[in-house]
Structures are given as C-alpha cells and as structure tokens.
Amino acid sequence: xxxxxxxxxxxxxxxxxxxxxxxxxxxxxxxxxxxxxxxxxxxxxxxxxxxxxxxxxxxxxxxxxxxxxxxxxxxxxxxxxxxxxxxxxxxxxxxxxxxxxxxxxxxxxxxxxx
Length: 114
Prior knowledge:
By secondary structure, this protein is mainly beta. It is built from no helices and ten strands. Strand 5 (46-51) and strand 6 form a beta hairpin.
C-alpha cells in the first residue's frame, strides 16, 4: 500500500525557516522522481519543486526559487523541503508525491504569520 507521511509543518514568522519531510512507502522510492506541492484553501494543488530519483537534478516553481531546496535520502525513502525566507504567501498545506502520481497523503500545514 502506497503511503506518504508528510511532517515538519508549523507556525513560523515571516523570514523564518522550516524543513518538511515526507516518508514514502509501498513503492520503489529510489527509482522514483519526487515532487512537492502546496494547496491554498479552496484551490487546487500547485507544484512547488521536483527532484530526480538520484537526486542529481532539481527544479522549482518561480515563486520559491532561491528560497526552497528539495533533497532526498533514498536509504530512508524520504524527501525533504528546506524552506527559507518564508513569506505569508507560503502559507498552505504541503504534500509530496512521486512523478507517477499515487494516492495523496494528509499533508502538513505551514503557516507564516507574525
């Protein structure tokens, strides 16, 4: 059974940092590219960042480029999203998924507010 368990969200002040984690199971993680998405209330999920199966290549949405960093640990079947210089517009529920889209996890809430 495929499962994504996102964690690491919380309340942070503007300019602060958070590191999100997503533990994956039920498929061959080391062979799968991975994505992070985020969803604003009442809106569709939007792609944020992606990483290849080896971790050699990454890509980012313009809105997060130079602030967010995606990485992975294939030995632990976990993908990370380091978020720096957070802005109120980054407030959303964050989800991970593989490039071959699988059932979504519950996500982790990130709130950026003073």
